[in-house]
Amino acid sequence: METLSDAIKNAMQHLQQGSLPEARGILHRLLATAPTHAEALHLAGVVELQAGAPQAAIGFLRRCVEVAPGVAFAWSNLGVAYNASGDFTNALACHEKTLALEPGNPVVLRNLGIALRYLGRHDEAMASFERAAGKTPDDPELRREIGDLLVDMGRPGDAVAHYARGLAANPRDTTGLHNRGYAFYRMGNAELAIQDYRAALKIDPRFARAMSSLAVVLNERGESAEAVDLLERAVQREPGNARFHNNLGIALDKLGRASEALAAYGRAIELDAGYAEAYANRGATLNEMKRHAQALADYDRAIELAPELPYNPGHRLHIQMHLCDWTGLEGRIAGVADAIAAGKLAAEAFVLCAVPVPPDIRRKCAELCARDVLRSTPIAAWDRPAYGHQRLRIGYFSADFRNHPVAYLVAPLAERHDRSKVETFAYSFGPDTGDATRKRLERAFDHFDDVRARSDADIVALARQHELDIAIDLMGHTTHARLGIFARRAAPIQAQYLGFPGTMGTSCMDYVIADETVVPPTDEPYYTERIARLPVTYQVNDLGREIAAEVPARTAVGLPERGLVFCCFNNKAKITPDVFSAWMRILAAVPGSVLWMVESEAIAAENLRREAKSRGIDPERLVFAPRVPLAQHLARVRNADLFLDTYHYNGHATTSDTLLAGVPGITCLGDAFPGRVAASLLRAVGLPELVTETLPEYEALAVRLAQDAGALRQLREKLERNRATEPLFDATRFARDLEALYARLHAARRDT
């Protein structure tokens, strides 16, 4: 018959061999007959620790120390179990009890340091680690723990030396390799981080945390396809890890796979209902899908859970504006501006386009965003001699080569470039939608490369293989931008154009292409780029845009048969209370008139109708037009009499579309690029008289024209003539101006 001593020896052998179920069975049978056997209780706790079940271990080990309170190693392992369970307060008490029984034990000192670290008592943790190091200076686990603490203390550079010392003692410490990789990542050295993550995975291909960490860096560097593959493997290994699902959602979203990203974020939230970052990320994807009400709920939850999470206040503000919910708007704008002034990542730069903030805040926001986007991508200098091509090689980079406002403007430019002077290259890292605009662009450029599955580094290598003279970023700080391409230097000259009305806030962008109206000389201090100005307007347009032949009757598009029709088809997020109040005063002064806007979510329309009623205007005088294909929209726009622009963020492509359709518009000159575009366009089409400088002037002009049918008719006739003669819709002239600008930029670099 097996004695208790034999049973303990047998269980110990199974434990040492890793046969945990067998060891567990022996110990459970023993404890059934001897429930207070201290050694059996201790071994049962150790089995559960090795099995990754710290709560079960705590149950056995607490019973053990009750039976044998003077056994130091039992207290030590109970402390380890508490550490593993995240209960660092009880862990600390156990480690202190162990040291009282066995002073100076280096393993216990290390474990005490771990508990202190997680309790935020960093100086005490370091003192405990240093005491342990005095006894076991080359203990690899201790060196790793010191490194982890130093990373927590914001000293990743110092941490690297400790990781290196530990890895010298144990080169196959995959956790040490992973954690040193994270320290390199925190230092901004993505290359060394990737090396360590890959080294850890080479030793242990099943190391899910290394898969996830590697994927995060690769995704930031534009290598999203590999990132998705790694994260899908990590999720398979650890399906209950909420962070892995969240990271998978981020990578999927970057590849344009929004529905799959939503599912990944949803799974992360199911696993961890308090996961603020997952709520924020899902909110961003819902926003991109124009599901703004749902996005708002997610942002509110994220802010409730983690008020300091980067970008969230700005995201929340932007969603609120999409929904035309102006409750507390001034306070939110001021809060975001104050946070940015304090150096906090409170908003993405694009959010500030639509709100009144000082110009230095716009620049600082762009700088903070660029620094964050490029935190794992050092900015490279051009390291090659200038090319000597007979024709300038110009590369255009975008995720929006499809049915998109930027693409509508770029297509005529690509078609009209003078092939004796320039050779054009397109690099598309957005979806291939196969629509008519996409096909037009594929034909229009000399070379069209679909690079969406390639990393930023691979795209730069391709651009350098093509020997670009100038690289043009058509994205700026907008969704799916890939600033990492330009940080790595795709060309000796890099400029941003058309996609983003403001500064990029980074030295990797040499120029912003603009004009005298949108960026006057007085605004240059608010740009990190040099200003490359075109002679008339910065926006390219042409008369060749398709407009449906049949103009529908007013009643067919929901308009009254009589009365003046004001229109504004700008994005709802551009509508602010000040300009809306001006519109309502205009409607009040022009009886029978209506304001025609584009339809969006029902809640936005409800909010605008409520705001109209609060200003004394019948809500039925707001008419909402459903979205239709652009050619049909341009035809129906002709039913409008006068376009009323938004203020802080004008209509850009929307304004030129409305002018193309033959409808004159009024704008008020804003104080920054986003609010000065319509003025540039109106001046370029020969209608400078429609540019006002204050909202009272804007209102007065709108009312005067609305009440003078003859003046409005003459204005419309003037626009009809000017469309064919003035520069705005002369794409060929624009192309020549832009090519001359490119030549000047190239010559300036060549001569330096």
From TrEMBL:
Q: How would you classify this enzyme at the top EC level? A: transferase
Query: What residue spans do the TPR repeats cover?
Result: 72-105, 106-139, 174-207, 208-241, 242-275, 276-309
Keyword Glycosyltransferase applies: yes
Question: Which SUPFAM superfamilies does the annotation name?
Answer: TPR-like
Q: Name one GO molecular function term.
A: protein O-acetylglucosaminyltransferase activity
Q: Which UniProt keywords apply?
A: Glycosyltransferase, Hydrolase, Protease, Repeat, TPR repeat, Transferase
Q: What is its EC number?
A: 2.4.1.255
Metabolic or biological pathway, per its Swiss-Prot or TrEMBL entry: Protein modification; protein glycosylation
Q: Does the keyword ATP-binding apply?
A: no
Q: Domain O-GlcNAc transferase C-terminal spans what residues? A: 361-542, 551-738
Q: Name one GO biological process term.
A: proteolysis
Which PANTHER family has this protein been placed in? PTHR44998, UDP-N-ACETYLGLUCOSAMINE--PEPTIDE N-ACETYLGLUCOSAMINYLTRANSFERASE 110 KDA SUBUNIT (PTHR44998:SF1)
* Family membership noted in the UniProt record: Belongs to the glycosyltransferase 41 family. O-GlcNAc transferase subfamily.
Q: State the name under which the record lists this protein.
A: protein O-GlcNAc transferase
Question: What species does this protein belong to?
Answer: Usitatibacter rugosus
